[in-house]
């Protein structure tokens, strides 16, 4: 006889739980998924045009983990139709003819993935949309075994049903956390928004384009970095895009409670201490099995020992090329490397911090109020008081506030009865650890037939998949034996450790890591062993290479789809190690910001001057002015040229630099007389795949009768450029010279 299972939530965790139970070979499950929205996706259920005010993600926000991590083991991204509904053209093709999938899909693309995953694996009759669960209560079934009475509300009113099992898959990010929510009502004249609702600068900036003041970001780490970067990018775009108007009076200040590492999604993978490292995605670089000590790989969780913290800091500093002391924000420099390392991942964020476009200051916002002068005038600015190490700092021109204070899961837990909450030691004040659960945060001690999927900070898709398989195996065994799972079967000792961890969280102890259950590799390896799943070495040496879901396909999975993902990873990794894939992207990102330049002009013709130019150059990020490109800079240069004849003159020039992920290429373009609008192509950079002491790229350009042969040389220090040079050899009827420019910070 089938066992009935109620699953709350149709986000990634609920969908993979439903699919896994439906494909179980040990036991037949009758699955019902309750979803309060009208579509699948959970957090990723976004409107392409950001038209839904309830959504918590910007539809165009890219993931900070690669498509290999943001996927299930047996559904390849190449099987997903990613046609953009906003563009009247099909999904582009990669150079090999396959459908092009960005390495870091956007939120609306993730939703498409989940919709098509659902269509492939889950019958329509399984998911009930627009149905909100209002209460869950432990009862006995008709045969006397543990069961759950579920009440729900939908268009037809309030209904209920009894199920043998209950899975909570409603996510850990059910509601934005606003620790200073009262301030938002007290100071209505200044725009205030949670980071999950921030889409553009106008959401938080004053309406008056000439207004000046500080946009304050409260909070660090992931959401704080994303918010700060988004606002800095909008300000840069407003100043440097064609036809736009600068908002030069606004500045961005981010208050961070602890130091953190600002990281891009592409980092050095091999030879990271050389001038010409190989690059790969940040997630798969960290998830490489070669980084683990010998023996079975088990997850580390909870409070972090000093030696592990020190190892993490050293690993991160290898990527960043140092301790970040060269940034304009000393708040990001970690002084104590024996405390857990924190990180924020966003493509443009590191260089915004370096340039000062985002100023990060240490501390916590104690209060936001008004000065006496502000009280007597219109409500157009506020005062923020920040406390750090017992000292007080004040910002008295706050004209907008973004609360990057994270989320809380408590709203998704209110359906539980008080006795269940008590048994699970529910603490609504501890948003990071509201329940104390058993092994890998799946099963609940002393609460039979209850399980959780993805219920912890930073859940990974493959980990959720393994949690679902663990549930199917466990409940399949207990069903076959005709009995439930009791507390003695769980790791009760873990609960003691979690009590201690929760106490440390509430006391803000220094050894609590950014993600207390963030050992993705350990979780996957341990749960795979429990399920009898053997790791696929995909042609690698044993126990090497990055961990991701398709290396651990179980009997629940589709081997054909999994092989597509394995082949994709193999190709990407080979291209990264042998063909310089990601180098162009890494170089383009690292060019952002301000540089000192020194140019030598060596002319062989007397009528064309030789000399030296000393000046400054800036690569200003802006939105691509051509939709086929993924990133764009306006390059602005100015300096003083001194010729060998003793003449001195001011010189300036502008270009547009573009990057396209589809071709993994950088291009350089002339701009029109307005100094902003892209004109015609100048250089198309082709990188040499076999660097010696630096990465080099070449390009030729014929300008009427003059041939420009160009060489770009990039020398890295970790993820940053130590320096780079551009050399143009120009020959024509009236030109014969070499221009050699060195760029240094």
Automatic annotation (TrEMBL):
Gene Ontology molecular functions? flavin adenine dinucleotide binding; N,N-dimethylaniline monooxygenase activity; NADP binding
Task: Output this protein's name.
Answer: Flavin-containing monooxygenase
Composition bias type Polar residues, residue spans: 307-322
Q: Which Gene3D superfamilies match?
A: FAD/NAD(P)-binding domain
- Class of the enzyme per the UniProt entry, highest EC level: oxidoreductase
Q: Which residues form the DUF6314 domain?
A: 591-745
Location of the region described as Disordered in the Swiss-Prot/TrEMBL record: 291-322
Return the SUPFAM superfamilies for the record.
FAD/NAD(P)-binding domain
PANTHER family with a match to the protein in the record = DIMETHYLANILINE MONOOXYGENASE (PTHR23023)
